Amino acid sequence: MKFIVIGGVTSTKLLIDKLLDSNIADVTVYGYEPKDHSLVSGWTDLSYSQKKGYIYKAFQKINDLENEIVEANPDYIFVVGLSQLVSRKIIDAAKNFSIGFHPTALPKGRGRAPLAWITEKCEDGAATFFELTENADEGQIFVQTPFLVEESDDAESVEAKLLIAEKDALDELIFAIKNNKLKGTQQSEEQATFNGKRTHFDGCINWENEAYKVDRLIKAATLPHPGAFTFFEDLEIKIWKSEVLFNSPYNGVVGTIQKVNQNDFIIQCLDHCIRVTSWSTDNSWLPKVGMRLGYINSLEINLLRKKVADLSERLEVMETSLKKVLSNKL
Predict the structure, then answer these.
(1) What is the model's pTM?
(2) Closest among 120, 97, 101, 99 to 110, alpha carbons compared
(3) What class is the 200-280 domain?
Protein backbone atom coordinates (compact mmCIF):
# COMPACT_ATOMS: atom_id res chain seq x y z
CA MET A 1 0.00 0.00 0.00
CA LYS A 2 1.11 3.53 -0.79
CA PHE A 3 0.67 6.26 1.83
CA ILE A 4 1.01 10.04 1.77
CA VAL A 5 1.39 11.99 5.02
CA ILE A 6 0.80 15.75 5.08
CA GLY A 7 1.50 17.92 8.13
CA GLY A 8 4.13 19.65 10.20
CA VAL A 9 3.60 19.31 13.95
CA THR A 10 4.19 16.87 16.80
CA SER A 11 1.10 14.81 16.04
CA THR A 12 2.33 14.37 12.45
CA LYS A 13 5.66 13.06 13.69
CA LEU A 14 3.87 10.57 15.92
CA LEU A 15 1.96 9.26 12.91
CA ILE A 16 5.18 8.86 10.90
CA ASP A 17 6.83 7.00 13.78
CA LYS A 18 3.84 4.67 14.07
CA LEU A 19 3.96 3.91 10.34
CA LEU A 20 7.66 3.11 10.69
CA ASP A 21 6.98 0.85 13.67
CA SER A 22 4.29 -0.92 11.64
CA ASN A 23 6.80 -1.68 8.84
CA ILE A 24 4.85 0.35 6.29
CA ALA A 25 7.50 1.20 3.74
CA ASP A 26 5.90 3.09 0.84
CA VAL A 27 5.33 6.50 2.41
CA THR A 28 5.82 10.01 1.06
CA VAL A 29 5.92 12.76 3.67
CA TYR A 30 4.94 16.32 2.76
CA GLY A 31 6.35 18.47 5.57
CA TYR A 32 5.04 21.97 6.19
CA GLU A 33 7.98 24.38 6.32
CA PRO A 34 6.64 27.89 7.05
CA LYS A 35 8.71 31.02 6.60
CA ASP A 36 8.61 31.62 10.34
CA HIS A 37 8.46 28.45 12.44
CA SER A 38 7.76 30.43 15.62
CA LEU A 39 4.30 31.34 14.31
CA VAL A 40 3.20 27.70 14.06
CA SER A 41 2.29 26.12 17.39
CA GLY A 42 4.09 22.81 17.86
CA TRP A 43 5.91 22.95 14.52
CA THR A 44 8.20 19.95 13.96
CA ASP A 45 10.83 19.30 11.32
CA LEU A 46 9.75 16.12 9.53
CA SER A 47 12.74 15.87 7.21
CA TYR A 48 14.19 13.20 9.52
CA SER A 49 11.77 10.78 7.81
CA GLN A 50 14.04 10.84 4.76
CA LYS A 51 16.82 9.20 6.80
CA LYS A 52 14.31 6.53 7.81
CA GLY A 53 13.70 5.58 4.17
CA TYR A 54 10.64 7.68 3.37
CA ILE A 55 10.40 10.23 0.57
CA TYR A 56 10.33 13.76 2.00
CA LYS A 57 9.06 16.90 0.29
CA ALA A 58 8.72 20.36 1.84
CA PHE A 59 5.82 22.71 1.14
CA GLN A 60 4.23 25.98 2.21
CA LYS A 61 0.87 25.67 0.43
CA ILE A 62 -0.14 22.06 -0.02
CA ASN A 63 -2.74 22.78 -2.68
CA ASP A 64 0.04 23.99 -4.97
CA LEU A 65 1.15 20.35 -5.15
CA GLU A 66 -2.24 18.80 -5.83
CA ASN A 67 -1.34 17.56 -9.34
CA GLU A 68 1.78 15.85 -8.02
CA ILE A 69 -0.22 14.16 -5.27
CA VAL A 70 -2.89 12.99 -7.71
CA GLU A 71 -0.23 11.51 -9.99
CA ALA A 72 1.25 9.57 -7.04
CA ASN A 73 -2.03 7.58 -6.91
CA PRO A 74 -1.85 6.77 -3.16
CA ASP A 75 -4.05 4.26 -1.36
CA TYR A 76 -4.34 6.48 1.73
CA ILE A 77 -3.65 10.13 2.48
CA PHE A 78 -3.20 11.35 6.04
CA VAL A 79 -3.57 15.06 6.80
CA VAL A 80 -2.49 15.48 10.41
CA GLY A 81 -1.56 18.74 12.13
CA LEU A 82 -2.22 21.12 9.24
CA SER A 83 -4.36 24.25 9.53
CA GLN A 84 -4.72 24.60 5.74
CA LEU A 85 -7.83 23.26 4.02
CA VAL A 86 -6.80 20.74 1.37
CA SER A 87 -8.44 20.83 -2.03
CA ARG A 88 -11.09 18.42 -3.24
CA LYS A 89 -8.60 17.19 -5.81
CA ILE A 90 -6.21 16.06 -3.07
CA ILE A 91 -8.99 14.50 -0.99
CA ASP A 92 -10.19 12.47 -3.99
CA ALA A 93 -6.65 11.38 -4.89
CA ALA A 94 -6.67 8.54 -2.35
CA LYS A 95 -7.91 5.24 -3.77
CA ASN A 96 -9.34 4.25 -0.39
CA PHE A 97 -9.60 7.12 2.10
CA SER A 98 -8.13 10.51 2.90
CA ILE A 99 -7.93 10.70 6.69
CA GLY A 100 -7.82 13.75 8.95
CA PHE A 101 -7.08 14.19 12.63
CA HIS A 102 -8.71 16.38 15.28
CA PRO A 103 -8.14 16.53 19.07
CA THR A 104 -11.79 16.95 20.09
CA ALA A 105 -14.65 14.50 20.51
CA LEU A 106 -16.17 15.22 17.11
CA PRO A 107 -18.78 16.30 16.23
CA LYS A 108 -18.11 18.57 19.20
CA GLY A 109 -15.39 21.17 18.77
CA ARG A 110 -15.08 21.35 15.00
CA GLY A 111 -12.94 24.18 13.65
CA ARG A 112 -9.82 26.09 14.61
CA ALA A 113 -7.38 26.06 17.56
CA PRO A 114 -8.95 22.97 19.20
CA LEU A 115 -6.16 22.42 21.74
CA ALA A 116 -6.47 25.95 23.09
CA TRP A 117 -10.26 25.83 23.21
CA ILE A 118 -10.60 22.55 25.10
CA THR A 119 -7.94 23.74 27.56
CA GLU A 120 -9.62 27.09 28.18
CA LYS A 121 -13.07 25.52 28.53
CA CYS A 122 -11.67 22.57 30.51
CA GLU A 123 -13.52 20.25 28.14
CA ASP A 124 -12.53 16.63 27.59
CA GLY A 125 -10.89 15.90 24.25
CA ALA A 126 -10.34 12.91 21.98
CA ALA A 127 -7.83 11.73 19.42
CA THR A 128 -10.18 11.49 16.46
CA PHE A 129 -9.31 10.13 13.02
CA PHE A 130 -12.01 10.83 10.43
CA GLU A 131 -12.61 10.85 6.70
CA LEU A 132 -11.64 14.13 5.06
CA THR A 133 -14.40 15.94 3.20
CA GLU A 134 -14.65 19.40 1.67
CA ASN A 135 -16.24 20.70 4.87
CA ALA A 136 -13.82 20.80 7.80
CA ASP A 137 -14.07 18.01 10.41
CA GLU A 138 -17.40 16.63 9.13
CA GLY A 139 -16.46 13.20 7.75
CA GLN A 140 -17.25 9.79 9.19
CA ILE A 141 -15.23 8.83 12.27
CA PHE A 142 -12.89 5.85 12.01
CA VAL A 143 -11.35 5.92 15.49
CA GLN A 144 -11.95 8.13 18.52
CA THR A 145 -9.93 7.74 21.72
CA PRO A 146 -11.04 10.10 24.52
CA PHE A 147 -8.90 11.76 27.20
CA LEU A 148 -9.70 13.89 30.25
CA VAL A 149 -8.93 17.59 30.62
CA GLU A 150 -8.71 18.64 34.26
CA GLU A 151 -8.67 21.99 36.07
CA SER A 152 -4.93 21.73 36.65
CA ASP A 153 -4.17 21.08 32.96
CA ASP A 154 -2.70 23.64 30.61
CA ALA A 155 -2.11 23.38 26.86
CA GLU A 156 1.24 21.68 27.41
CA SER A 157 -0.17 18.89 29.61
CA VAL A 158 -3.28 18.55 27.42
CA GLU A 159 -1.03 18.04 24.39
CA ALA A 160 0.83 15.30 26.27
CA LYS A 161 -2.48 13.57 27.01
CA LEU A 162 -3.52 13.99 23.40
CA LEU A 163 -0.36 12.33 22.11
CA ILE A 164 -0.90 9.33 24.39
CA ALA A 165 -4.47 9.02 23.09
CA GLU A 166 -3.23 9.44 19.51
CA LYS A 167 -0.81 6.53 19.95
CA ASP A 168 -3.64 4.27 21.06
CA ALA A 169 -5.90 5.49 18.26
CA LEU A 170 -3.19 4.89 15.66
CA ASP A 171 -2.66 1.31 16.84
CA GLU A 172 -6.35 0.63 16.19
CA LEU A 173 -6.43 2.58 12.93
CA ILE A 174 -3.32 1.07 11.36
CA PHE A 175 -4.43 -2.43 12.36
CA ALA A 176 -7.77 -1.86 10.61
CA ILE A 177 -6.05 -0.50 7.48
CA LYS A 178 -3.56 -3.36 7.24
CA ASN A 179 -6.34 -5.92 7.65
CA ASN A 180 -8.76 -4.17 5.27
CA LYS A 181 -11.29 -3.63 8.08
CA LEU A 182 -11.49 0.15 8.17
CA LYS A 183 -15.08 1.29 8.75
CA GLY A 184 -16.50 4.60 9.87
CA THR A 185 -19.45 6.03 11.78
CA GLN A 186 -21.29 9.09 10.54
CA GLN A 187 -21.23 12.19 12.75
CA SER A 188 -24.41 13.65 14.23
CA GLU A 189 -24.96 17.13 12.83
CA GLU A 190 -27.40 17.87 15.66
CA GLN A 191 -24.59 17.48 18.21
CA ALA A 192 -22.01 19.50 16.28
CA THR A 193 -20.35 22.54 17.88
CA PHE A 194 -17.84 24.89 16.29
CA ASN A 195 -14.73 26.72 17.48
CA GLY A 196 -13.49 29.93 15.88
CA LYS A 197 -10.01 31.06 14.94
CA ARG A 198 -7.61 32.30 17.61
CA THR A 199 -4.62 34.59 17.11
CA HIS A 200 -1.69 35.80 19.18
CA PHE A 201 -3.69 38.88 20.19
CA ASP A 202 -6.34 36.72 21.87
CA GLY A 203 -3.74 35.97 24.53
CA CYS A 204 -3.85 39.53 25.87
CA ILE A 205 -4.75 39.37 29.58
CA ASN A 206 -7.50 41.55 31.00
CA TRP A 207 -6.85 41.65 34.74
CA GLU A 208 -10.37 43.02 35.26
CA ASN A 209 -11.74 39.54 34.51
CA GLU A 210 -12.41 36.95 37.20
CA ALA A 211 -9.27 35.12 38.35
CA TYR A 212 -10.58 31.78 37.04
CA LYS A 213 -11.01 33.22 33.51
CA VAL A 214 -7.55 34.80 33.58
CA ASP A 215 -6.00 31.53 34.74
CA ARG A 216 -7.80 29.50 32.05
CA LEU A 217 -6.60 31.95 29.37
CA ILE A 218 -3.00 31.62 30.58
CA LYS A 219 -3.33 27.82 30.59
CA ALA A 220 -4.83 27.80 27.08
CA ALA A 221 -2.24 30.15 25.59
CA THR A 222 0.88 28.56 27.06
CA LEU A 223 3.27 26.28 25.12
CA PRO A 224 2.99 24.95 22.49
CA HIS A 225 1.10 28.22 21.81
CA PRO A 226 2.61 31.75 21.75
CA GLY A 227 1.68 32.53 25.36
CA ALA A 228 -0.64 34.90 27.20
CA PHE A 229 0.76 38.39 27.71
CA THR A 230 0.38 41.64 29.59
CA PHE A 231 2.28 44.93 29.75
CA PHE A 232 4.24 47.00 32.20
CA GLU A 233 4.44 50.44 30.65
CA ASP A 234 5.81 49.70 27.14
CA LEU A 235 7.23 46.27 28.01
CA GLU A 236 5.41 43.08 26.96
CA ILE A 237 5.49 40.31 29.56
CA LYS A 238 4.68 36.70 28.63
CA ILE A 239 2.83 34.78 31.33
CA TRP A 240 3.34 31.02 31.01
CA LYS A 241 2.14 29.40 34.24
CA SER A 242 -0.35 30.42 36.92
CA GLU A 243 -2.80 29.23 39.56
CA VAL A 244 -5.83 30.78 41.26
CA LEU A 245 -5.58 31.71 44.94
CA PHE A 246 -9.18 31.47 46.09
CA ASN A 247 -8.29 32.11 49.74
CA SER A 248 -5.60 34.72 49.29
CA PRO A 249 -5.19 37.17 52.21
CA TYR A 250 -4.39 39.94 49.72
CA ASN A 251 -6.88 42.45 48.37
CA GLY A 252 -5.75 45.26 46.12
CA VAL A 253 -6.32 47.25 42.96
CA VAL A 254 -7.00 45.09 39.91
CA GLY A 255 -3.84 44.35 37.95
CA THR A 256 -1.53 45.31 40.83
CA ILE A 257 1.20 43.03 42.13
CA GLN A 258 0.44 42.26 45.78
CA LYS A 259 3.35 40.01 46.78
CA VAL A 260 6.67 38.96 45.29
CA ASN A 261 8.35 35.71 46.29
CA GLN A 262 11.60 34.18 45.10
CA ASN A 263 10.06 32.29 42.17
CA ASP A 264 6.59 33.78 41.75
CA PHE A 265 4.41 36.83 42.27
CA ILE A 266 0.78 37.38 43.26
CA ILE A 267 -1.46 39.73 41.29
CA GLN A 268 -5.00 40.94 41.88
CA CYS A 269 -7.82 40.08 39.46
CA LEU A 270 -11.46 41.12 39.72
CA ASP A 271 -12.47 38.71 42.47
CA HIS A 272 -9.38 36.78 43.58
CA CYS A 273 -5.62 36.81 43.15
CA ILE A 274 -3.58 34.52 40.96
CA ARG A 275 -0.04 33.32 41.49
CA VAL A 276 2.21 33.67 38.43
CA THR A 277 4.93 31.01 38.54
CA SER A 278 6.53 31.38 35.10
CA TRP A 279 7.00 34.45 32.91
CA SER A 280 9.45 35.94 30.44
CA THR A 281 10.37 39.29 28.88
CA ASP A 282 12.86 40.64 26.37
CA ASN A 283 14.89 42.22 29.15
CA SER A 284 15.70 41.66 32.82
CA TRP A 285 12.36 42.91 34.19
CA LEU A 286 11.57 41.82 37.73
CA PRO A 287 8.19 42.13 39.45
CA LYS A 288 7.84 44.52 42.37
CA VAL A 289 5.03 45.05 44.84
CA GLY A 290 2.75 47.86 43.68
CA MET A 291 3.50 47.53 39.96
CA ARG A 292 0.34 47.71 37.89
CA LEU A 293 0.27 45.43 34.85
CA GLY A 294 -1.87 45.97 31.79
CA TYR A 295 -3.51 49.15 30.57
CA ILE A 296 -6.48 51.10 31.93
CA ASN A 297 -8.44 52.06 28.84
CA SER A 298 -9.79 55.41 30.04
CA LEU A 299 -6.37 56.56 31.28
CA GLU A 300 -4.60 55.46 28.09
CA ILE A 301 -7.20 57.20 25.92
CA ASN A 302 -6.83 60.35 28.01
CA LEU A 303 -3.03 60.28 27.60
CA LEU A 304 -3.37 59.74 23.85
CA ARG A 305 -5.84 62.63 23.56
CA LYS A 306 -3.37 64.91 25.35
CA LYS A 307 -0.54 63.82 23.05
CA VAL A 308 -2.70 64.34 19.96
CA ALA A 309 -3.74 67.81 21.19
CA ASP A 310 -0.10 68.69 21.85
CA LEU A 311 0.95 67.47 18.38
CA SER A 312 -1.90 69.41 16.76
CA GLU A 313 -0.80 72.59 18.55
CA ARG A 314 2.79 72.11 17.41
CA LEU A 315 1.69 71.48 13.85
CA GLU A 316 -0.34 74.70 13.87
CA VAL A 317 2.71 76.64 15.07
CA MET A 318 4.88 75.04 12.38
CA GLU A 319 2.25 75.72 9.72
CA THR A 320 2.04 79.39 10.75
CA SER A 321 5.84 79.72 10.69
CA LEU A 322 6.04 78.06 7.28
CA LYS A 323 3.41 80.43 5.86
CA LYS A 324 5.40 83.43 7.11
CA VAL A 325 8.59 82.13 5.50
CA LEU A 326 6.86 81.50 2.18
CA SER A 327 5.15 84.92 2.33
CA ASN A 328 8.48 86.72 2.89
CA LYS A 329 10.02 84.89 -0.06
CA LEU A 330 7.19 85.99 -2.32
Answers:
(1) 0.87
(2) 101
(3) alpha beta
